[in-house]
Amino acid sequence: MDALSERAQATNSQEPSLLYTGFVKCKNGPYNSTTNPDGIINLGTSENLLCNDLIIPKLEETGKITPQQLQYFPVNGIKEFRQEVGRFVADKTKADVEIYFEEVSVMNGCSAAFCFLAFTIGNSGDRYLIPTPYYGMTEKYMGGYSGLVPIGVELDCKNMPSVELFKESYEQALSQGETVCGIVLINPHNPTGVIYPKDTVLEVLEFAKQRKLHVIIDEIYFLSMFDEDNFESCLSYSKMWPDPQRTHYMWAFPKTLQCQDQDARWYIHRIKTSTRHLEGRLVSTILYRALSK
Q1: Are the beta carbons of 150 and 130 closer than 8 angstroms?
Q2: Could you tell me the pTM of the whole model?
Q3: 111: three-class secondary structure by DSSP
Q4: What is the tens place of the pLDDT at every residue in 36-59?
Q5: Which residues contact 242 (CB under 8 A, 6 or more apart)?
Q6: pLDDT 10s digits, 229-267
Q7: Which of 11, 19, 12 is nearest to 191 (CA)?
Q8: How far is it, in rounded angstroms, from Cα 81 to Cα 94?
Q9: 164: which residues sit within 8 A by CB, 6+ positions away?
């Protein structure tokens, strides 16, 4: 253990997450009716496996390698790709303003995007508010590098994140001498599937503005619903965001386009922020993450 840093030793001493432990077991012994009838069926990982017949031929069609792809490129993503991501997300979310490529950062996965933002918005030991129950790995993503700690906010009787409940959790944290740096909203919610309406999201954003809190809004599931008409993306009313400089939007390919782990080109998070100094910090941390991989 002397070869490891204190950070690494602390991480190594933690129990592995239940999700990861189960995932590894499933990969090592997957069920097969013929070759492994006693194997494990994975019901714990959200993977889209329904579109192989559509996705694979399309990826094969775009398999041409260009010299540009073999050279160094901006660590927040190739300009042309960021432009296309911006157009795609703007179209699907019915965004009320144009999305410029400068506002888009392409990263190597959901976990990386959470890590980068957590590193940027708070100091080690700071707290963030998140409706509970929540996807367990969010805690790892937000705390792994940056040391942020979650404060679970109980949902109301309709599984909605009431602003009053956020206020109560925030005030309680302050009374205990804790520093709260932000809020994480996943909409549609994981794991309940509840859709947060526009009014609720705006109320949370207004509360965050009053307390100078950052808000990370992850809409990774918004194109994976049976009835998309019931959902309003926060990008469709971004002109109403009370504090755009502390509001950060995330989306990724895997749940909708079945690109769980192809490579960085396809497995991305899109972060929209008008905060230029935050963008600069994100770029520097992207390089660190790329090297650490």
Answers
A1: yes
A2: 0.82
A3: helix
A4: 999 999 887 777 777 778 877 877
A5: 202, 205, 206, 208, 209
A6: 789 999 999 999 999 889 999 887 766 665 555 433 232
A7: 19
A8: 20
A9: none
Q: Which amino acid is at 36?
A: N
Nearest Cα residue to 94 out of 225, 248, 233, 195: 233
**Closest to 215 measured CA to CA, from 175, 242, 194, 253:** 242
Ramachandran angles phi, psi of 287, nearest 5°: -60, -40
- Per-residue DSSP letter, 229: G
What is the DSSP secondary structure assignment for residue 179, as one 8-state letter? -
d(CA 260, CA 108): 11
CB 148 within 8 A of CB 126: yes
Give the whole-angstrom CA distance, residue 206 versus residue 243. Answer: 8
Amino acid at residue number 18: L
8-state DSSP, 176: T
Q: Which residues contact 216 (CB under 8 A, 6 or more apart)?
A: 114, 117, 121, 182, 183, 184, 185, 248, 250
Residue 64 tokens read as 């041409």
Cβ atoms < 10 Å from Cβ of 190: 19
